[in-house]
Amino acid sequence: MTISCFIKGVLYADSVKFVAAETGTLIDKRRPSRTEGCSRSEGRYFLAALIFATLIVLLPKPLHAITLSHADVLRIGKRIWQNECNGTIAGLTSWNEGEDFASLGIGHFIWYPKGRRGPFEESFPKLVSFISKRGAKLPTLLLGTGEKPCPWNSRTEFLGAEHSTEMNQLRRFLTDTINLQAEFLIARLESALPKMLAEAAPSDRANVKTQFERLTKTPQGCYALVDYVNFKGEGVLHTERYQGQGWGLLQVLEAMHGNSDAGAADEFARAAKAVLTRRVQNSPTERHESRWLSGWIRRVNSYNGG
Q1: Distance between CA atoms of residues 250 and 245, nearest Å
Q2: What is the pLDDT of residue 118?
Q3: Are 102 and 94 in contact (CB under 8 A)?
Q4: What is the pLDDT of residues 218-266, one digit of tens each?
């Protein structure tokens, strides 16, 4: 069968409309007609075939899929819960001193009060949406349409509500959805790769993708990726830079150049230490970020068991 004849069976030349779907597929809209047949101009079909073939070439190729067992996903989630909250229920609802947002769930997902925004990406509303779509019951303060802002406007208000009905419901919700929060973290990691490739310099993209894929081939490497992207972000936001240099997952992958799957997690840990040390060196003096570096290094050491 020629390309032209194939296109005839898929598209009607007088009413073709290409619609870009999220999946990267092409959807045809056509008017049914019993009179249309193979007697149409070959030139028109050839043009349609050429357009179709060109678009297929230009469509993005599927990116590397992460395959983990349910047990591995839950294990990663619990390790991140330990990293962020010391594995405690109380740690699931936090507001750290000096910050303008609440940190909730196993990943300390950021939740800003109404009208407040900062340099860091807000992630808690996205988590709520993800969990809601999985059919989990939401607490009263999260019900309703649209993204809800944090109802507490300051750390003082948040701490004052520690034993309130709303806070207790929130903690119960977060405790009951540990597995879904872990799934959200995996999904966030998968969505990070295309963002990082778009942000990386063209000459670096192949290496970034290679390093990402090296790490996803083992549960330990997947843990390192998931934890770091939750810990320090994707590295694509220009607001998350000191002296023009970022400290997210993209920057760590760019610093890697190995090709051994077995050694990927160890190399990632070394690169992450270097990137975080550089962040502290580049940070504004008044932020005193050196006080956090030893804790960051201990966390990164867990990627290779160090």
Answers
A1: 11
A2: 78
A3: yes
A4: 899 999 999 999 989 999 999 899 999 999 999 999 999 999 888 999 9
Nearest in space to 192 (alpha carbons), one of 217, 218, 219, 222: 222
* The residue to which tokens 């903690």 are assigned: 171
209: left (phi over 0), alpha (psi -120 to 50) or beta: alpha
Tens of pLDDT, residue by residue over 42-64, are 455 455 445 444 433 343 444 55
Spatial contact of 273 and 300, defined as CB atoms under 8 Å apart: yes
List CB contacts of 261: < 8 A, sequence separation 6 or more. Answer: 214, 217, 218, 221
Strands 102-104 and 109-111, by their bridges, are antiparallel
> How does DSSP classify residue 113?
B
- pLDDT given at position 181: 96
* 3-class state of residue 287 by DSSP: helix
Q: Return d(Cα 78, Cα 110) in angstroms, integer.
A: 19
The domains of the chain are located at: 3-58, 85-179, 200-301
**Two tokens, residue 209:** 């993708």
CB-side neighbour CA atoms (13 Å) of 216: 17
Extract the tokens encoding 39: 């007697």
What is the DSSP pairing of strand 102-104 with strand 93-94?
antiparallel
Counting every residue written for the chain, the total comes to: 306
- pLDDT recorded at residue 146: 83
For residue 58, what are the CA distances in angstroms to 51, 174, 196? 11, 42, 19
SS3 72: helix
Residue at 167: amino acid letter: M
